[in-house]
Amino acid sequence: MDIVLLGSTGSIGTQTLDVCRMHNIRVKALSANSNIELLEKQTREFLPEYISVSDENYYKDIKTRIADLNVKILCKEESVCELASLQCDRVVNSVVGFAGLLPTLAAFKAKNSVALANKETLVAGGELVMKALEENCVNLLLIDSEHSAIFQCLLGAGENKLSKIILTASGGPFYGKIGEELKNVTLAQALNHPNWKMGAKITVDSATMMNKGLELIEAVHYFKIKPEQVEIVIHRQSIMHSAVEFEDGAIIAQLGTADMRIPIQFALTYPKRLECPAKRLSLTEAGKLTFETPDEDTFICLKAARKAIKMGGNAPCIVNCANEAAVSLFLSDKISFLDIGEAVNSALCDIKFIKNPSVDEILDTKKIAEEYVFSRFKQGEI
Ligand code: MG
Fold first, then answer.
1. What is the pLDDT of residue 194?
2. Parallel, antiparallel, or unpaired for β 50-53 and 26-32?
3. How remote is the CA of residue 346 from the centroid of ligand 1, in Å?
4. 107 Cβ neighbours under 8 A, 6+ residues apart
5. Model confidence pLDDT, tens digit, residues 312-355
């Protein structure tokens, strides 16, 4: 099989290449927005036909570095979409943030199946994306560990209806803290996730619990279930990756170690299960598994995401993009941790709601939400 890998130098990208190495999966194209040195290493090892980089300086740099190789280098805004349209068995989309939406749509249009690690695709473009998926009769497999778990729990379920999804959350580094205690937490503390090693944006999202909010929205679209049928449960050990409950009350769960190579590999090789380099789970070593209700009064991003998916339309896009802008400010130490939740909630209240947004209206909403957060920052309101 062959894949196109978008976002190859990030956490999911490098782990996807681990899986490719192990199972001799051919890599037809790579794209990256950072870490040109690593991109060069990956290009030399996997010898893709194409690579794409995000800016002119990266382009010049990589061109010199791999002058001895026969690789086409692209560097335009639409290059990632061009790569997503190349004929292949799977497009692995691990682009960070809203930028992942258009490549997913481009892949569908080219009749490519997608293994999706970019949750913003379904969060911001939910209805549009699911419609494009159905129209093009391709497969969409989610790499997110929770959604992969739910998908696996549903294999063999046939026509049997779900009564609910149990979406597990680690609770992140600030689990158990309330209001005031979060006032002075630092960026370094937010980036210190107890169980998972991930990129900076998603690690901050885990600390605010926005990540679980985005996953809730993703699950509602992908599994075609009502928001109130998704129960979010804090499970500190990150061993049960999620579960489903059927109408008879039976709960089926998927368990494993916290290693993203398991869901990545499954999204690439589905319906086959192949050997995986991840450590095996020992239940006796794990000992205790605990489950608790999340504190939505403290982690208000989660509350905003729940409100947004109930509203529908462009509301999930508003919370997603306001969050993206606020997290970028937090990552450059310009706003405080609690400002993120404040920015997301006020954006949802203040920005114009559109019930059935087009792709252009989604793109506009993104700009408006970003400008809203950046201007509140400039005016000293956050
Ligand atoms: Mg997840």
1. 83
2. parallel
3. 25
4. 4, 84, 85, 91, 93, 113, 114, 138
5. 999 999 999 999 999 999 999 999 999 999 999 999 999 999 99
Tell me the C-alpha distance between 382 and 374, whole Å: 9
Query: Does pLDDT of 196 surpass 90?
Result: no
Q: Measured in angstroms, how far is the CA atom of residue 204 from the centroid of ligand 1? A: 13
Provide the token pair at 272. 């086959």
Which residue shows structure tokens 């292949």? 88
- The CA-based angle 65-268-289, given to 5 degrees, is 110
Q: Are strands 140-142 and 114-116 parallel, antiparallel or unpaired?
A: parallel
Across the strands, what pairs with 169? 234
- Ligand 1 centroid – CA 60 distance (Å): 35
382 contacts 342 by C-beta, under 8 angstroms: yes
The Cβ of residue 192 has, within 10 Å, a number of other Cβ atoms equal to 13
How many Å lie between the centroid of ligand 1 and the Cα of residue 233? 13
Q: Taking 90 as the threshold, does the pLDDT of residue 80 lie above it? A: yes
Length of the chain: 382
End-to-end CA distance of the chain: 49
Rounded to the nearest 5°, which phi and psi values hold at 356? -120, 75
Q: Across the beta sheet with 114-116, what order do the strands follow?
A: 72-74, 50-53, 26-32, 2-6, 90-93, 114-116, 140-142
Closest CA relative to residue 91, chosen from 164, 167, 7, 150:
7
Structure tokens at 190: 């937010």
Adjacent-strand bridge partners of 253: 243
User: Across the strands, what pairs with 31?
Assistant: 6, 52
Q: What is the mean pLDDT of residues 294-323?
A: 97
* Residue 154: other Cβ atoms inside 10 A: 16
CA 302 and chain centroid, separation: 15
Report phi then psi at 184, rounded to 5: -110, 20
The residues, any chain, with a CB within 8 Å of residue 1's CB and separated by 6 or more, are 25, 26, 89, 90, 268
Ligand 1 centre to CA of 337 (Å) is 21
- Could you count the other beta carbons within 10 Å of the beta carbon of residue 248? 7
